[in-house]
Prior knowledge:
Blueprint: E1 8-10, E2 15-17, E3 21-27, H1 29-68, H2 71-105, H3 108-121, H4 125-132, H5 142-168, E4 174-180
Antiparallel strand pairs: 1-2, 3-4
Amino acid sequence: MYSPDGRWWWNGTEWVPAPQWRTRYEITPWTRQLQVAVLALQAIGVVFAAFILPFIFNQSLTQQAALSGDPQTTEAVRQVFAGVLIFAAVFALVLVAVLVVGVLMLWRWLYWYLMLSYGFALLALPLNVVNALGYGTIQYPSWYFFIVFPLAVVQGALCVWMVIAYRRYGNWARRKIVEPA
């Protein structure tokens, strides 16, 4: 039994100073593999977004021009879209930088965030099926779905791997070692 402040321990006959424990994490063979897999998937996602966003931007502008017919309105919408695209690119670069640093530094909160987001990526598959069948609001090119479906499956597999790594070792597949100080 420990005292309320945690400094003393009852050994059955008297109160003695409580032992101090130090916690450290030890990497396993899975740790680096998991880091590489996460960073590779994020790199693929960034490259894919860099190719698909201009397409969506152009398609939205084409739809807006067809709806309005006014060149001034079309130009105003083009400038707003360009501003939003620039803001999104800067925000995405900052987010990717935080992600890379977090993966390399093995941040625990990032592990949970990535595991959950990879799991939720599987929930987007039905919406992608609807879009692939042509019932969505934006008509994507057919090559889009040849990339999105495998990426979602890879994200789901990575989520499962992260759950198994956590159950086997701990977050980022690291063993927690508790030893006396």
